[in-house]
Amino acid sequence: MNRFSLSLLAGVAVLSMASAASAADLLVRQQPSMPGFVDMGGGGGWDGAYIGGFVGYGWGTASQDPGDLLFLDSDDLDLTGWTVGATLGANFTVAQGFVLGAAGDIAWAGIGGYDTANAADFDINWTGSFRGKAGFDGGAFMPYLTAGLAFAGATGSDDGIDNTQVHFGWTAGAGVEVAVVDQVSLDLQYRYTDYGTAEYDLPAPATVDLNTHAVTAGVNFKF
Fold first, then answer.
1. What pLDDT digit, counting tens, does each position of 165-179 carry?
2. What is this structure's pTM?
3. Which CATH architecture fits 3-31+40-222?
């Protein structure tokens, strides 16, 4: 993870913990929840299974090993694009104010880049993850940290030939969930993901290391 990604992840985590501190202060003062938001009760209100959907924007880098010839402009190819997917998860209160959970997601991705010197494409087609979550029950708000396993399907194209491989790695990030009506919440999240390396069998064979940043906004429905 580079210095930029560390700084961005740290910034999001600080904002999440600041939200947690603010929510804790509201609970101590026993103030009503803000207009437009639903107070989940501050004691198990976030518990239960949920399903949801999200959209987001991703950017990152596909990096070939030095000496490989898939990308000729540079060993690093910038990737950008959109993603849309679905989430399934569950939360459990383990102590007063603290929530642990697990979540899985799968998403279509249109995140890619083009190397002009070699007329080579590289595209992330889909992504997924299995993650743990640790959050703070702030009534209408639940800031949280999340981390776990990640995987992605990507396609490299060179000289009219395509090769698709699956990458396996890890992901970590932070977010905040906000209750808007009973059983429905908004979920805002940032994650950095290192998908690891995969070998691409192309006219210019290459070992490609893949990493991304993603900011997503979603809606979760508890059941």
1. 999 999 999 999 999
2. 0.82
3. Beta Barrel (2.40)
